[in-house]
Write a structure and sequence with these properties.
The chain has about 110 residues and is mostly helical. It has two helices and no strands.
Length: about 110
């Protein structure tokens, strides 16, 4: 995993850190135990970040698929509206023809 520029240390930096021993230095065992906790936290942070990144990619793929489906459905809806208009126009034409036929046939009788 590439380390973000916000972080100054990586897990390896902490793991491989060497301290100089001084006469009044810290107890190396306590330092090691504390750094082990720090490393453990860093590893957990990296795991969480990786998981969140994977979830983000999944959600982005789902959004892309849903946008494509939306475009498809909008196209189908537009076609259906045009079809309904056409059917409505045909019904009006048939009604007009029926009225004309009735008028013509009434006059012939």
């Amino acid at each position: 995993m590439q380390m973000d520029k916000r972080f100054k240390l990586s897990v390896d930096d902490v793991l491989n850190k060497q301290f100089n021993v001084d006469f009044k230095g810290y107890c190396s065992r306590e330092v090691d135990e504390f750094l082990d906790l720090v490393i453990s936290d860093y590893q957990e942070y990296e795991r969480i970040i990786d998981d969140l990144g994977n979830h983000l990619q999944e959600y982005e793929h789902q959004i892309t698929a849903m946008k494509a489906k939306l475009v498809e459905l909008e196209g189908k809806q537009e076609l259906e509206s045009e079809k309904q208009e056409f059917v409505g126009d045909n019904v009006d034409i048939l009604k007009r023809l029926t009225r004309l036929e009735n008028e013509v046939f009434r006059k012939e009788k």
